[in-house]
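Q: Here's a chain of 484 amino acids. Please give me its 3D structure as tokens.
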Amino acid sequence: MDGLKTKVIRGSIAKLCGQAITLFIRLVFLAVMARLLDPHDFGLVAMVTVVTGVFELFSTAGLSAATVQQASISAEQVSTLFWINVIVGAVLSSLCLATGPFLAAFYEEPRLLWITAALASGFIISSAGVQHLALLQRDLRYVSLAAIETIAQMAAVGIGISMAVAGLGFWALVGATLAVRFTTTACVWATVRWKPFKPKSSDEIGRLLRFGGTITINNFVIYLGYNLDKVLLGRFWGADALGLYGRAFQLIDIPTSSLNSALGGVAFAALSRLQTDANRFRMYFLKGYSLINALTMPLTIFCLLFADDIIFFVLGPKWDDAVLLFRLLAPTILVFGIINPTGWFLQSIGLQVRSLKLALVIAPLVFIACLLGLPYGPAGVASAFSTAMTLWVVPHILWCCHRTIISPADLLMALWRPSLASLSSAMLVYFAVPYIAFFESVFLRLAVCGAAMALVYAFVLLIVLDQKSTYLDIFRSLKATSRA
């Protein structure tokens, strides 16, 4: 087994395990906070984070991706990028402070001024760890990254719950957010031996800045497209509506975003190393693409079918109105699983401009759809969002694959088996619920239905659709890696 394959598999295992732990921690935190706080508290913080999230996109200036994507990079270049990130962090912190009065006036909510001021400090804290995180990712040190993410999440949980129990309301959510930033930066400095020194300018730095700038603009446009729905709901329907919509979106998106984060980081770093080896590049990407959809599709469809029990179990009885939103947003999350991995592909081979062009189409498409759905409240916005994203899938794939080594047929072949297995297993289990899950306990009902769906899904995918050899190959690779 070659060195890169070993690192990729080990990194994937570490990230998946780390994301599984982080997912569990996030769900527990969400469940506890949903019972300690009201939807209004979540809505207040969401009014600010929708906007500060825009600044967050600029916090790395795309320079972490530039560090990872380069075939080779010197310590001097990384040091220069570090100081650029720190300057960017200071500028963003100042801009965030300046937006506080405007947010308070826009939403007619004076408390937003102080929430914004508190969150502004996070940009300076995070900027000091951007390049350290990039170096860990570049070296595929995902065991360390997984440990850091877990520690940061545990710190956030401890601080957030303590503040909520103390009766600090929405400030508990602010405290948890800042805890993640501070803990992450402290941990990466303790883990990475590299220390920044005096910056130096060069022509190569200019190229890295252009690459990072394109990535940043791409992320900015996508962020706007995927978050203007929350801005509109907060402005025209209030904090309660936004709180319900935001928690429903977060909850159904957690499995897909966690898996995409776990495999996406490893895939981007590995694919960047294979830019000059077309055959291996194609093989690695399609295996990763197939794997992430084989994991995200059944999870999202399970959430769609058992939304009532999931909302009740995770968030509690006062969040019943989130059930419909949870279901309506499921198609959007399915589409994310299909189109988001294409970002690894385009950016790792230097087609970040095409990725940006795709974003420039997605953003107005979603915005117009959400405007059309806005008069009908959160449910109208959720329906419009999902409709727009579903209509976009085919054009996105065709454009993404145009004149590249990956064809639309390749992606279709990677998708149809997980899709069929997910749908068939979900429907069989759903109609069998009265016979296999007649418990009054919501937890037992979800556990039995989840286990039954997993077994049926595995049987259909591996045996009926004859994918056993494909996944046995992955298992053998994992086994060989564990012995290496």
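Q: Can you summarize the key feature?
A: Residues 53 and 223 are 8 Å apart (CA to CA).
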